[in-house]
Amino acid sequence: MNRRWSRGEDDISDELLLSGMAVGDDRAGLVFVRRYQRRLFGLALGIVGDTGLAEDVAQEAFMRIFRHAPVFDARRGSVATWTLTITRNLAIDALRVRRAVPTDPQDRVFQELMSNRRQPDDAALTSDAVGRAKAALAGLPIEQRRAVVLAAMYGRTAAEIAAEEAIPLGTAKSRIRLGMAKLREAVVIAEAL
Amino acid sequence: MSDYTTEPTRCEAMQEDLTELALGTLSGRSRSEVLDHVESCSRCQSELEWLSIVADTVLQLAPEAEPPVGFESRLAERLRGSSDVRRLKHRRRASVLTAAALLAAVLGFGLGTLVTARSTDNVSQTKTANLISTSLNSQGHVLGEVFVSAGNPAWMFMTIDSGTPSGVVWCEVTLTGGRVETIGQFNLSGGYAAWGAPLKSPAGQVRTARLIAANGTVLASAILPA
């Protein structure tokens, strides 16, 4: 990257970068890619569990983000949410296309999300919604945590979770609802602070 | 619109499906039933919004990972191969970093020399986060971009590369309800300008923006997303 443009680029909002990408500004695109590549690749890897496929997913996600930058509407949500949702949906689609059965999410990333160990930086995060949600997720009973992660991150339906966990559909639905309700409480508190 | 007190049983029965709707895992008939209910129930509408925020937040918990070496260059290659991007790259436009400098300049952050616009509006400092952009068109041709930044006050920015002669132009906006406000004036230099000014009304009320020449001709217009 041209160093002339590195100065102050951290101060440019995501929305402004998208506006630049929408009018073909290469430098805005590069700043955006560098800002988001670790998050998008990390999410893709977490879902598909394969480095090559995760790269394909993350690259396609960026392609779509570039293509749809002109129609991004900030009133409907944040850029981070938008980009992560695009990546998640592509990753789930990629899994469904390449594998006949859903992947078994027993990989490192899933295990990390399932872990209820507090990370060293969690304390610093607990003042915002993401930090509080992370702490709340870690505090959920294991079966609720698993149901929430499978649904929110891996796009599993209640029926798929019921089949994978060998539990009744009603139980799967209850686990998802109860887990999400506890996370909701944590996020509401964070938003109110 | 109903609320929880009038339909407690139905709302309670909807909770599981409402959660799955927010997670994006509900489909078919259940999805349409919940959507129908949400449309007429303020309590469930609010609940759905919260659950959607939670679902979005969970996505942000995924740990970051370093992409393989060469990720950026391979992506750049794909972008270069994209016809849409190639077409855009050939258009001479003000960069977003110019727009960022413009933003800083019009907000009084000391970069005023970069701005050629003359605006007599009061300048106040604010930090804006939400920007909406749309193209500035004339007879089917894109002449520039309009950026509207939400805030108090809201701001409008324009980058124009029209190829039309130099001269003073006026920017006016049409608000919800049809009221027209003149936002300011600036110079087109060789058909090019980058300009910004505070809006007198909230950003959400702006429906269109128009660029008017000294003789009253409408040079270009933009429709802001509702």
Please describe what this structure looks like.
The complex is a heterodimer of chains A (193) and B (226). Chain A has helices at residues 14-22, 26-48, 51-68, 79-98, 108-114, 122-125, 129-139, 142-152, 158-165, 169-192. With 193 residues, chain A is an all-alpha fold. Chain A folds into two domains: 8-103, RNA polymerase sigma factor, region 2, helix turn helix motif (Rna Polymerase Sigma Factor, Chain: A); 104-193, Winged helix-like DNA-binding domain superfamily/Winged helix DNA-binding domain (Arc Repressor Mutant, subunit A, Orthogonal Bundle). In chain A, helix 2 packs across helix 3, helix 2 packs across helix 4 and helix 3 (51-68) crosses helix 4. The longest helix of chain A has 24 residues, at 169-192. Chain A starts with 13 loop residues before the first helix and ends with a helix. With 226 residues, chain B is of the alpha+beta class. Chain B has two domains: 8-59, no CATH class; 94-223, Immunoglobulin-like. Chain B contains six helices and eight strands. In chain B, the strands form two sheets. Chain B has a four-stranded antiparallel beta sheet, covered by helices on one side. In chain B, strands 5-4-7-8 form a four-stranded antiparallel beta sheet, with no helix packed on it. In chain B, a hairpin with a 2-residue loop joins strand 1 (131-138) and strand 2. In chain B, helix 1 packs parallel to helix 3 (42-59). Chain B is extended, with a radius of gyration of 23 Å. The interface between A and B is large, with 82 and 64 residues.
- Helix share of residues of chain A? 55-70%
Q: Unreliable segments of chain A (pLDDT under 50, ≥5 consecutive)?
A: 1-7, 118-126
Query: In angstroms, what separates the terminal alpha carbons of chain B?
Result: 23 Å
User: How many discrete structural domains of chain B?
Assistant: 2
Q: Which architecture of the largest domain in chain A per CATH?
A: Orthogonal Bundle
Number of helices of chain B: 6
CATH topology name of the largest domain in chain B: Immunoglobulin-like
Tell me the structural class of chain A.
Answer: mainly alpha
Strand adjacency order, main sheet of chain B: 1-2-3-6
Order of helices and strands of chain B: HHHHHHEEEEEEEE
Question: Which CATH class of the largest domain in chain A is shown?
Answer: Mainly Alpha
CATH classification, class level of the largest domain in chain B: Mainly Beta
Which stretches of chain B are low in confidence, meaning pLDDT under 50 for 5 or more residues running? 83-94, 108-129
Mean pLDDT of chain B: 73
Q: What is the alpha-carbon Rg of chain A in Å?
A: 18 Å
CATH architecture classification name of the largest domain in chain B:
Sandwich
How many structural domains does the protein architecture of chain A include? 2
